[in-house]
Specification:
227 residues, 9 strands, single chain, alpha+beta, disordered C terminus
């Protein structure tokens, strides 16, 4: 899944936006104006407020299609169910606690189908508030034959990786270079060269990422969304 981090440009876009709104301060600040967010980022973006309970303030068009309906204005718990919602809230809590972006990779499953997912959560102050009041998240999903909203009632989730983005300017620079190697590895007809470039891409990206415990805390076992 870390390779998908390099392949999905929205993760890098959100990191850059977060860093630009930080302006050297400890916490990025947003004024509530969606038009200030890069337009290319909006389709795969979700904005959550009323934390820590979390309400969907903005849901991008691609996220709405994958989910199977518009969740704007609704609470995370009522749309995702107790366990899947718990996983999302745990990411919110990590981002708020650490005041830094957090990346998570997971597998959604409704037998016999699976969907690979990656999501990047970034905390923001709102209009100069001293504490983070908003979380923005960008999303990557593989192709799937089920709607994300059905996972809460019928499926299960396995979080495979959770990473703290420890140094955003450095990881942005590394990801730019890593993405170049990632694309080169896909373009070359030489399998050995492709493997080498892919290895370089992973090594470049991994340098500024800090592993965090997965959900449930410290436990990688599969957990059913029935709770």
């Amino acid at each position: 899944m870390l390779r998908n981090f390099f392949a999905a440009p929205d993760f890098l876009r959100l990191l850059r936006f977060w860093e630009s709104r930080r302006g050297g301060a400890a916490l990025a600040d947003w004024d509530g104006d969606v038009s200030a967010i890069p337009a290319e980022l909006l389709p795969n973006l979700i904005i959550l407020d009323e934390l820590p309970d979390a309400r969907y303030r903005y849901v991008g068009a691609a996220c709405t299609r994958r989910f199977g309906g518009d969740t704007t204005g609704r609470k995370v718990a009522e749309t995702l169910g107790p366990a899947y919602g718990g996983y999302i809230r745990s990411l919110i809590e990590d981002a708020l606690l650490r005041r830094a972006p957090v990346f998570s990779a997971s597998v959604l499953q409704i037998e016999p189908e699976v969907m690979l997912t990656g999501r990047l959560f970034a905390p923001f102050a709102l209009r100069g508030s001293p504490e983070p009041r908003i979380v923005m998240s960008a999303h990557f999903f593989s192709e799937g034959r089920f709607r994300v909203k059905d996972v809460g009632a019928q499926g299960s989730v396995l979080e495979t990786e959770r990473l703290l983005i420890a140094a955003v300017p450095e990881i942005c620079a590394r990801l730019e270079e890593a993405r170049r190697y990632h694309h080169l590895s896909r373009a070359t007809p030489d399998p050995a060269l492709a493997r080498e470039w892919d290895r370089i891409a992973v090594d470049l990206g991994a340098g500024a990422l800090v592993a965090l415990p997965t959900y449930p805390r410290g436990d990688r076992r599969d957990w059913a969304t029935q709770g």
